[in-house]
Automatic annotation (TrEMBL), chain A:
Pfam (any one): AAA_assoc_C
Record domain ABC transporter: where: 11-244
SUPFAM superfamilies, per database record: P-loop containing nucleoside triphosphate hydrolases
KW Transport (keyword) present: yes
Descriptive protein name: NitT/TauT family transport system ATP-binding protein
Presence of keyword Cell inner membrane: no
């Protein structure tokens, strides 16, 4: 704290662009990302799934090589050869190796002599609170214990930078909280051999609790849209007013529309026209969300943070739903608030058949792919069209995975609205009962 | 290095007092070792020894014959394993090699192995003139060809499905290729490899029987073994001897199952990729016994040392990670593709030339016509076997206690070489004056129908209980129950079984369409008989044509019938 030395950079990322799909072209996932990590800080990459933050993390880890841009490790006096190690969301433990063998893996690869390897691994296991489990196999451990093994395996190689890819999101709430607290204690007591931590998360509270600096990512393509310093003294209390205020502020920033007005209104999802990637959101969920916002506490206007709280959703789950409503003109995202349109409020009061009709109208008007399918079915005498052709059309614009999800989504919506139907057996769209 | 030796040395001191399990295990293992040496002696003797000590039907010699046969099978298994590790790894790691190897393996899986014998026996006998080893190798090679392709294919598929996050860990820690193979690829693929080796070993029996006593043109070689013992028993119409051979075979299969495969399956269970402990891990008494011994770990230590030495020799892991660049030199790429096409065209031209010069159009017509007949047989037999075994398999599979008992029996029957039972069919056909064209057919499926049975049993036991309860609650029974509950539930499993059974039946037609008992020769029309006759006559072009046509039919069957059905089952009916 007392030192006035300028912060020493550790990693420098410059002009990173990355695409999915074969060059040239492909789907842009990271757009012009610049980022400098300094020593002695915990940095959070906050964004929604698919925003490319894991891609950035893997670029820094050297696991993937971005199409354009550089990732440089900056050597300094107290860190002559910066190295990284990673903790995985899925733990990524070898089920046929014991806890000790899993932890020793990285050292073994570095050809550390057996005796030193053993003593360093045991020290890491001790540090991370796994004593007594040295000879256990991963399948004998609970999720929390497994992630501790993942952490020990990363720390034992003395990395300068610890990379964490949503490390707590596969754990239950209590276990995640315990692990976070333990990690923060080790960090603030300086007991870990690392200089910095870079953590990827989609949980805003987690980011505010753990990080000194938060980089907010927008999706499609992934870009850093905000950088937020967290000055709340540690240990941080979630119920503290400054903590809450910051969480709400970040909610607002994450919902903020992209600054450049040149983007079309549909731009919440990547791609335009029929090439728009549609998230898998069921019509029941959409109806439920409309009803919730229409209902008493909110009366047609809800802050995303409160809505997430009241529905017990992660922000990551809530955004695609809200944005789908926006796409269908059933709602508008204004700052951190979700506003229902008059149409949506009528929808909330309507009966099943009216709801379907309203949904169908919105679908054909505002989802270009749905309109496209319907038009082709109308044009054909048989009122039938193979799904293959739309899949191919989509795959010209996006990866096969996205194409299949998009088609699945539009099928689901079209079936609900009864604007067209789909037969799995012959893989065809059709107008089942032409009026 | 001393630091690494110390722990194992102190372990030695602690372990010097053998226990009771050591005594039992060593009795069994040393017995096996003596047997192996005894059998290996015979395998390198001069060829004249075969004539000095011809195969006799005295049951006293049977244990020795069985030993020779088993040794051949394990030699083939070892060769197949080495082949698998090398070739499949190459295919998975190198894009170029993969493009050649994978389709080749796929096709080789469909080639009738028995047809190979003609060529390989001649080849290997010329390789070691005047020594038994040549004939031995030909026999081992026949078994090898029945095992290697599908083992390699399964291993390749395992390597391609290694979990991405573990791959990233290896990449992140910059594990060298050797270490990555030993730490990730090999363990991950082991359970599938062991299972496949076990199934292949069962398949190998069929070919042992056919490959030990073989006549190609005017070359006859008879190796001491159960297969040739059986062949002689059939020739002399000796019922007792056939009985002895069948009994010995059953005992041998039981022995290696208990002493070799069960322990390995139990051991390989640790490599199964799952994060939760499974309730019913495979059990093996011999594995438990070996685990309780104290000296065995010390004896096996050299194996672990081998791995360590291998790793010690690897170059120091580079800190800078290798950038795998997707785009390689376009000119090299084009050159490679041109080379492949040239090879394909040359091979086609060469084969075409060979076939056209030595075969007439009439040969082709006959081979195709015979193939049609055999195809009808295979289809009818699969349908009949399905009609019998699907209902029975479902009944058994829905009763867990019964399934537990029947399943190993079905697997044993699948391992049992059905060709030893052929003579009984001949006697019956001759006695009742039946038409060989019809009544020889069931022999083709005698050995392979069990694949349908035990796959259906497995499928039926996997039908979730809640589905059965729901069906029961709504009173779903009769044909509706079969149509909507049982058949969809077992479909993917059934297809797996039927695919194996159909491929096996094609192959079996080579021995099933021409059958002999003493001086009774029965012959049915079909492609199998065509190949068998050509083999006996030493007519190589005809054998080659027969094999090619059969491969084409099996491949076409797989591509046009089984794969689409399998894909449909995977997509729609996977629970």
């Amino acid at each position: 704290m007392a030192t006035l030395l300028p912060p020493q950079p550790l990693i420098e990322v410059k002009g990173l662009n990355h695409f999915y799909g074969p060059p040239p072209g492909g789907h842009l996932v990271l757009e012009n990302v610049d980022l400098t990590l300094y020593q002695n800080e915990v940095v959070g990459l906050l964004g929604r799934s698919g925003s490319g933050k894991s891609t950035l993390l893997r670029s820094i880890a050297g696991l993937i090589h971005p199409r354009q841009g550089t990732v440089a490790r900056i050597a300094s006096e107290d860190c002559p050869d910066p190295s990284v190690a990673m903790v995985f969301q899925t733990f990524a433990l070898f089920p046929w190796l014991t806890v000790l063998q899993n932890v020793e893996l990285g050292l073994e690869a570095q050809k550390v002599p057996a005796a030193e390897r053993r003593s360093r691994a045991l020290a890491a296991i001790d540090l991370i609170g796994l004593d007594g489990f040295e000879n256990a196999y991963p399948k004998e451990l609970s999720g929390g214990m497994r992630q501790r093994v993942g952490l020990a395996r990363a720390l034992v190689v003395n990395p300068s930078l610890l990379l964490m890819d949503e490390p707590f999101s596969a754990l239950d709430v209590l276990t995640a909280e315990t692990l976070r607290t333990d990690l923060l204690d080790l960090w603030s007591e300086g007991r870990m051999p690392i200089k910095s931590i870079l953590i990827v998360t989609h949980n805003i509270e987690e980011a505010v609790q753990m990080c000194d600096r938060i980089l907010v990512f927008s999706s499609n393509p992934g870009r850093v849209v905000a950088e937020i310093k967290v000055d709340i003294p540690r240990p941080r209390d979630r119920l503290d007013p400054p903590f809450r205020a910051l969480v709400d502020d970040i909610y607002a920033r994450m919902t903020a529309r992209p600054a450049d007005a040149a983007r079309p209104r549909e731009g919440v999802f990547p791609g335009t026209g029929i090439a728009m990637v549609l998230p898998h959101v069921s019509t029941n969920t959409l109806a439920g969300l409309i009803e919730e916002v229409d209902g008493t506490p909110f009366n047609g206007r809800a802050s995303m943070a409160e809505l997430a709280d009241s529905l017990n959703f992660e922000i990551d789950d809530l955004f695609p739903m809200a944005e789908t409503l926006q796409l269908l003109r059933f709602a508008e995202l204004r700052g951190a608030e979700l506003l229902l349109t008059p149409a949506a409020r009528r929808y909330a009061q309507a009966d099943v058949d009216h709801r379907k009709a309203m949904f169908g109208e919105a679908l054909l008007a505002h989802v270009p792919l749905a309109g496209h399918i319907r038009r082709i079915l109308d044009e054909r005498a048989s009122h039938k069209a193979p799904a293959r052709r739309f899949r191919d059309e989509l795959e010209d614009h996006m990866s096969p995975d996205f194409a299949s999800e998009t088609l699945k989504t539009v099928t689901n919506w079209g079936r609900y609205a009864e604007v067209f139907t789909y037969h799995e057996d012959d893989d065809q769209f059709s107008l089942d009962d032409p009026q | 290095m001393t630091t690494t030796r110390l722990p194992s040395f102190s372990r030695m001191l602690r372990l010097t007092r053998p226990n009771r399990e050591d005594a039992i295990a060593f009795a069994i293992l040393s017995g096996l070792a003596v047997l192996v040496f005894r059998a290996a002696e015979g395998a390198v003797a001069p060829l004249s020894s075969l004539n000095l000590e011809p195969v006799t039907l005295a049951p006293v010699h049977l244990p020795y014959y069985a030993l020779r046969t088993v040794l051949r099978m394990f030699a083939a298994l070892l060769a197949s394993t080495v082949f698998t590790l090398v070739v499949a790894t190459l295919a998975a790691r190198s894009r170029h090699a993969g493009r050649l190897i994978v389709p080749a393996l796929d096709i080789l899986q469909s080639v009738p192995i028995l047809g190979f014998l003609t060529f390989t026996v001649t080849f290997f006998m010329n390789l070691f003139p005047g020594n038994v080893l040549g004939v031995e190798l030909a026999s081992v090679f026949a078994i090898f060809t029945s095992q290697a392709w599908n083992m390699a294919f399964s291993f390749y598929q395992s390597l391609r499905s290694v979990p991405g996050d573990l791959e990233e860990v290896c990449q992140g820690f910059a594990l060298s290729p050797v270490r990555r193979f030993l730490r990730l690829d090999l363990p991950f693929a082991t359970p599938a490899l062991v299972w496949n080796a076990m199934m292949s070993m069962s398949g190998g029996w069929f070919f042992v029987v056919a490959s030990e006593a073989i006549t190609v043109g005017n070359t006859t070689a008879t190796l001491p073994g159960i297969g040739s013992y059986l062949a002689m028993a059939i020739q002399q119409q000796n019922f007792h001897a056939v009985g002895w051979a069948v009994g010995t075979m059953a005992l041998v299969i039981l022995a290696y199952d208990q002493l070799f495969f069960r322990p390995i399956v139990a051991w390989a269970d640790r490599f199964r990729f799952e994060q939760t402990a499974s309730a019913d891990a495979p059990q093996s008494w011999f594995h438990d016994l070996l685990r309780r011994t104290r000296l065995l770990p010390v004896v096996l230590a050299p194996l672990a040392t081998l791995g360590r030495v291998l790793l010690a020799l690897e170059p120091r892991a580079r800190r800078q990670r290798v950038v795998v660049d997707g785009a390689s030199n376009p000119w090299l790429e084009r050159l490679w593709q041109a080379g492949v096409w040239l090879g394909v065209i040359a091979a086609l031209g060469w084969t075409g030339h060979y076939v056209l010069t030595s075969l007439t159009l009439q040969d082709m017509a006959q081979a195709l016509g015979d193939a049609m007949i055999t195809m009808v047989r295979v289809i009818v037999l699969i349908v009949l076997a399905s009609l019998i075994w699907v209902p029975l398999g479902v009944m058994i599979g829905l009763r867990p206690r019964l399934a537990e008992r029947v399943q190993p029996i079905a697997q044993f029957l699948a391992a049992f070489p059905a060709n030893v039972l052929f003579p009984f069919a001949v006697i019956a056909i001759v006695r009742f004056g039946l038409a060989p064209d019809v009544w020889l057919s069931p022999l083709m499926i005698l050995g392979t129908q069990w694949y349908i049975l035990f796959n259906v049993i497995a499928g039926a036991s996997a039908i979730p209980n809640d589905l059965r309860e729901a069906a029961g609650m709504f009173g779903v029974r009769g044909w509706q129950w079969w149509r909507q509950v049982a058949l969809p539930g077992i479909f993917p499993y059934y297809i797996t079984g039927a695919l194996t059974a159909s491929g096996g039946s094609w192959n079996a037609s080579i021995v099933a369409e021409v059958v002999t008992w003493g001086d009774h020769h029965l012959r049915a029309h079909g492609l199998g008989a065509y190949i068998a006759d050509a083999t006996t006559a030493g007519n190589y072009p005809q054998v080659a044509l027969g094999i090619a046509v059969m491969s084409l039919f099996v491949l076409g069957f797989n591509r046009l019938v089984w794969r689409p059905l399998y894909a449909f089952g995977e997509r729609r009916l996977r629970l």
